Amino acid sequence: QVQLIESGGGSVQAGGSLRLSCAASGTTYTMGWFRQAPGKEREFVATIRWGTPNILYGDFVKARFTISGDKAKNTVSLQMNSLKPEDTAVYYCAADKERSALSYLRRPEPYDYWGQGTQVTVSS
Fold first, then answer.
1. Is 13 helix (H, G, I), strand (E, B) or coil?
2. CA-CA to 88 of 20 to 30 Å: which in 19, 60, 62, 70?
3. Cα dihedral sign for 55, 59, 60, 63?
4. What is the DSSP string of 61-86?
5. What is the per-residue burial (b if ≥16 Cβ within 10 Å, else e) of 4-30?
6. Is the CB of residue 115 less than 8 Å from the CB of residue 5?
């Protein structure tokens, strides 16, 4: 069983920046981020599939967020800039233990492991 340990998050004013990090205790094929705001479904943020690498972003990101990672260390980070109040949510790190199709990685189903979540609050 792979454990995902998240760090970062917190509160920031609109226009500010935050950086989230996640470390996996074992080998993964893909590591990424989802978020969930109160009363809403879990939403895809970004993911990185090791090997090629392949990087995907959610449609709402629009160059504000950057995902990066280190396959050897099994770590992934999410740099979030120009934050907006609508970015307020619990952000979850997720990891896939198998090589899933790239098109499938925007959905939560292929991810086998999840972190506990870290709160990001953006005030106006």
1. strand
2. 70
3. positive
4. TTTSEEEEEETTTTEEEEEE-S--GG
5. bebebbeebeeeeebebbbbbeeebbb
6. yes
Give CA–CA dist 97/24, Å, rounded.
11
- Of 55, 123, 56, 117, the closest CA to residue 86 belongs to 123
Q: Tens of pLDDT along 76-106?
A: 999 999 999 999 999 999 999 888 888 899 9
Here the tokens at position 111 are: 């991810």
Contact assessment for residue 100 and residue 30, using Cβ atoms and an 8 Å cutoff: yes
CA distance 6 to 20: 7
| Pairwise CA distance, residues 24 & 70, whole Å | 11
